[in-house]
Amino acid sequence: MVSARATTEQDLEIRFAVGDGDVLQEIYSAHGTLVNSYCRRMLDPARAADATQEVFVAAWRSRVRYRSETGTLAGWLTGIARFKVIDILRADGRQPTPAADLPQPRDPRPGTADPTRIAERMLVSDAMATLPERAREMVRLAFVEDLPPTQIAERSHVPLGTVKSDIRRSLERMKCQLEGFDNAA
Question: Which CATH number does the domain housing residue 56 bear?
Answer without folding.
Answer: 1.10.10.10
